[in-house]
């Protein structure tokens, strides 16, 4: 016995696929454009990181004359670790904003 093809369901699935592609492209643009600023625990280093995880700038405030290399290395490591976490957080927030209202096929 031949199976009936639900043309409307197929059309809806195709449209949903197109919408997902559009949302995915919007998400990719958003994560590369969204920049988060993160500071070291002592506030002497600032790192700008995109939601995609790319560090776009590093700024050092104040003088480094009275800092030893180990202290500076700890601050850099801390701020880079925090930048990675901030990028992940920003990516998740953008994902929720962009895809949050999107229904699955099962929700129809």
Automatic annotation (TrEMBL):
It comes from the Bacteria. Gene3D superfamilies: Nucleoid-associated protein YbaB-like domain (3.30.1310.10). It holds the Pfam family YbaB_DNA_bd. GO terms for molecular function: DNA binding. Coiled coil: none annotated. InterPro entries: YbaB-like_sf, YbaB/EbfC. This is YbaB/EbfC DNA-binding family protein. It comes from Winogradskya consettensis.
